[in-house]
Design a protein that fits this description.
By secondary structure, the protein is mostly helical. The chain is about 85% helix and about 0% strand. It is built from 5 helices and no strands. Helix 1 packs across helix 5 (about 95-115). The longest helix is centred in the N-terminal third of the chain and has 28 residues, at about 25-50. It is elongated, with a radius of gyration of 14 Å. The mean pLDDT is about 90.
Length: about 120
């Protein structure tokens, strides 16, 4: 099992154990949620490109919340860091790399679902 599958399995197990859902229910929720999160990632990119701190804060918060609900902890950690930095107006130079990390993590889950 590769890293992609391990991360997905970890999220599935944690979510299903905590929420009492079956695996197939989680997967349906995850598939739909990843579509929405991917749209938010594009909005985040636009906010970072334009330097719109309000958009960066709002979208990173939304990504953090959705990812947390789904137990996608690697995305939660990066979105939380980005959100905190944006709220404080700090380290703007780090925003693009944090965006790339979020995008890469989402791609990992999407690729794992395709297998």
């Amino acid at each position: 099992m590769g890293v992609q599958e391990e991360k997905l399995e970890e999220a599935i197990t944690k979510f299903c154990n905590e929420m009492g859902f079956e695996r197939d229910v989680y997967l349906k929720i995850l598939i739909n949620a990843l579509v929405d999160i991917a749209k938010d990632v594009e909005l985040l990119r636009a906010g970072i490109t334009s330097g719109d701190m309000n958009t960066i804060q709002q979208i990173s918060h939304r990504i953090k919340g959705a990812s947390s609900n789904l137990r996608l902890n690697d995305i939660v950690l990066v979105a939380t860091e980005l959100n905190t930095l944006a709220k404080q107006g700090q380290e703007v130079s780090r925003y693009p790399s944090l965006y790339v990390q979020i995008e890469a993590a989402i791609n990992i889950y999407q690729q794992a679902l395709e297998k």
